[in-house]
Predict the 3D structure of the following.
Amino acid sequence: MSQTLDGVGVTPLSGLGTVRWYRPGDHPDPEDVDAADPETERERFDEARATAREELEAERERTAERVGEEEAAVFDAHLQFLDDPQITDGVEDAIDDGAAAEAGVARSFDAAIEQFEGMEGMMAERADDMRDIRDRLLRILSGGERIDLAELPEGTVLLAERLTPSDTAQLDPDACAGFATMTGGRTSHAAIFARSLGIPAVVGVGDALAEIEDGADVAVDAEHDAVIVDPDEETRERVSASREVDVRADRVETADGREVEVAANLGTSAELEGADAQGADGVGLYRTEFLFLDRESPPDEEEQVETYAEALDAFPDGRVVVRTLDVGGDKPVPYLDLPEEENPFLGNRGIRRSLGDDGDLFETQLRALLRAAAEGAGTLSVMFPLVAAVEELDAALERIDEIASDLDDEGVDYAVPELGVMVETPAAALMADEFAARVDFLSIGTNDLAQYVMAAARENDAVAHLHDPRHPPVLRAIDRAVEAAHDNDAWIGMCGEMAGNPELTELLVGLGLDELSMSAVTIPDVKAQIEETDTADAREVADRALAASTKEDVRRIITQES
Ligand code: PEP
Ligand code: MG
């Protein structure tokens, strides 16, 4: 009998395979380990650290090759913690007091973890890094088996309570048929890496996952948010078939000839190749904050020019929409020393920081963008995140004028790119005409727009039913923005998760979006849907959805149930 467990699919992919549990935290209770004399325990600790260092360095190298240099920088932080005197002194003090190396490690790391956990969301991620190193050391000390995630046998479905970013980055997409975890959400780093690597993944399955045994036959059906144990023949066929994608490298148009641009969302240069391979017309959202995360200092102007020009060269006939730095809220940038906030999602984030505390970073980024616009092959577009007030946009546009004039004075080559604003707040949707009159394009970020229109945090499972762009007020906000853009001769795209759901493509075409941007893996399906869509029928679907009162009515209209 097959059994289905629900979770959150983070890639629109599915895979079939044999279960292998990954339990890096499985080791004897550190406090139960008998201590030898302090000198021996110190030696054991030093040896364990040396082994951990070797492992981390090898993993760092592999991650740099497979995912990218920026992601590999996660390991630098881990290596640093390994030698952090605050932690190592704590371990040695405990050993001198008669503890075994295991107990010393557990006590010292747990104290540091507790400190990080006391901080707001983004610093709490550091606690994850600490847990990662603690468990690594405890495993080494207990002589426990190390599952080499890079060398899993082909057809492995990996199950774990949670996977760290470093775990996920080790996975070989050709060998790993998928993974499922008990905890985690859509926007976790593990989920983002899974999307970059194209691995089927379902997270947040809960305790029920623990019931699945090593060696079981499992389907990870991320398209349908499910993990299926002992799948029947029908499920097997469906899951296997979904891997065969028909990539459309050319631009697509609707059945009646309206072109809709389909672009990729990405955060690192390492994802450019995958985006191209899935048939992206360009990049619709380059989340530049990923260039700033997990490192010790921000990238300088030269590094950024190179990164943006690389993206432009990857799409010589396309457009690359780069979003300026969008940090604050829940995104960890340790060297920025972001203060703790009562309501981070309503706080100092996005353009607010760029026009305030992060003015220097904003200036460097804009200089790099203007220079890259003159250097790279494709067309650069730049947009600003989380704009709520027209004054903010005016101030950002003024910064661009000032920077252009500085570059002029310095005799540096530059070009002013196409400029745009993200519609992520109800304020931006309501004032979309004012915004569109000032810029070349708008791009709707439905992840934040749904959160703010519905007053439902995007990462809070308890209100996930409200954080859904199919709610009529979200659709009406989108409609208003599209009309305002077109009335003002601006083009309008969508780069929130909603854009990558092929079930919603007809509705979005009907609403009049000119561009849809999404995780690369969903591009083939959305392109196929566009080709099947008739604009007049799509407009009718959109009109009916806009007139609906409930999300359920909208769902029925979209799925054409009566
Ligand atoms: C959005 O809010 O929809 C968006 C695309 O931005 P992010 O998910 O990076 O906040
Ligand atoms: Mg956003």
Summary: The chain has a mean pLDDT of 90. The longest strand covers residues 14-22.
